[in-house]
Amino acid sequence: MQNKTCFLLSYIKYGDSDAVLHCFSKDSGYETFFVKGIYSAKNKKKAYLFPLHQITVTLNAKKNASAMPLVTKIEGGMLSYDHEDVKTNTILFFCI
């Protein structure tokens, strides 16, 4: 198990309840993760899927080097700013 703190850049819904996350972390740069069941009716974690939101993901150990890392746990991170405007969020994201 490996924990990573990163910023969510975008996401793509995959199937009925899964998603592919495009994130940027300070240590590794641009990364892509796969999340199972994020869009299921009982899952309350889909609120974390907001662009430029800091999230902490727990990854499963890679069995296959070419496979996309699977997220086993997702948590919201601490926000250092509280602006709802997308333009302001973008400016603050690249300036901080």
What features would you highlight for this structure?
10% helix; OB fold (Dihydrolipoamide Acetyltransferase, E2P); single chain; 96 residues; 43% strand; globular; 5-stranded mixed beta barrel; 1 helix
Number of domains: 1
The quaternary structure here is single chain
Distance between the termini: 29 Å
**Structural class, from helix and strand content?**
mainly beta
Identify the CATH class. Answer: Mainly Beta
Strands, count: 5
Shape: globular
What topology, given as strand order, has the largest sheet? Answer: 1-2-3-5-4
What name does CATH use for the topology?
Answer: OB fold (Dihydrolipoamide Acetyltransferase, E2P)
How confident is the prediction overall: mean pLDDT? 84
How does CATH name the architecture? Beta Barrel
Rg over C-alpha atoms, rounded to the nearest angstrom: 14 Å
Strand content: 35-45%
Number of helices: 1
Low-confidence stretches: none
Description:
The chain has 96 residues and is mainly beta. It has a single domain (2-95), classed as OB fold (Dihydrolipoamide Acetyltransferase, E2P), CATH 2.40.50. It has one helix and five strands; from the N terminus they run βββββα. The chain has a five-stranded mixed beta barrel with strand order 1-2-3-5-4. A hairpin with a 3-residue loop joins β1 (2-14) and β2 (18-25).
